Automatic annotation (TrEMBL):
Cited SUPFAM superfamilies: Winged helix' DNA-binding domain
Cofactor, how bound (note): Binds 1 zinc ion per subunit.
Localization in the cell: Cytoplasm
Protein name: Ferric uptake regulation protein
Keyword Ribonucleoprotein: no
UniProt-listed PANTHER family: ZINC UPTAKE REGULATION PROTEIN
Family membership noted in the UniProt record: Belongs to the Fur family.
Keyword Transcription listed: yes
GO biological process: negative regulation of DNA-templated transcription; regulation of secondary metabolite biosynthetic process
Keywords noted in UniProt: Cytoplasm, DNA-binding, Iron, Metal-binding, Repressor, Transcription, Transcription regulation, Zinc
Subunit and interaction comment: Homodimer.
Gene of this entry: fur
CDD domains: Fur_like (cd07153)
Length: 149
């Protein structure tokens, strides 16, 4: 699991550097995501946030998530419609996600040459890539070991 304190400190620095406001709600949403062992869905975040902030509504969570994604602090797991904290938001290139279908653990990879190859092939086909999502679903080492025991 991520070191949530280090991640929040890094997020504060990054937002300050880009002149973006890292509000208490945005911070708390990031903290909730960072301390979750797998991805969190928006309504799970809303349920948790509502216990602390009675005024929390879906737009509150979705605006916070949008901000965190724009800042590179959170990734959306498309196949699960969930969100996971980015362990290295300073990495400006593409990423790939390994998702365990058993325990929900998510690992982030940075195979830049894979993303570049896909972008080049798309260009050759006349496409302009706007967003690239690569998710690999399977079993993590721990779950694989448990399954074989």
């Amino acid at each position: 699991m991520l070191d949530s304190h280090a991640l929040l400190t890094q997020a504060e620095r990054q937002c300050h550097k880009h002149g973006a406001r890292f509000t208490p709600i945005r911070r708390r949403v990031l903290e909730m995501i960072a301390t979750s062992p797998g991805g969190l869905k928006a309504y799970d975040l809303l349920d948790r946030l509502a216990t602390e902030h009675a005024s929390a509504r879906p737009p509150t969570v979705y605006r916070a998530l949008e901000f965190l994604i724009e800042q590179g602090l959170v990734h959306r797991i498309e196949s699960l419609n969930a969100y996971v904290a980015c362990p290295c938001p300073e990495h400006a290139h593409g990423f790939q996600l390994l998702i365990c279908r058993s325990c929900g653990r998510v690992e982030e990879l940075h195979l830049d040459d894979v993303n570049e190859q896909l972008t080049q092939v798309a260009r050759q086909q006349g496409y302009r890539i706007e967003r690239q999502t690569i998710e690999l679903l399977g079993l993590c080492a721990s779950c694989t070991e448990q399954a074989s025991a």
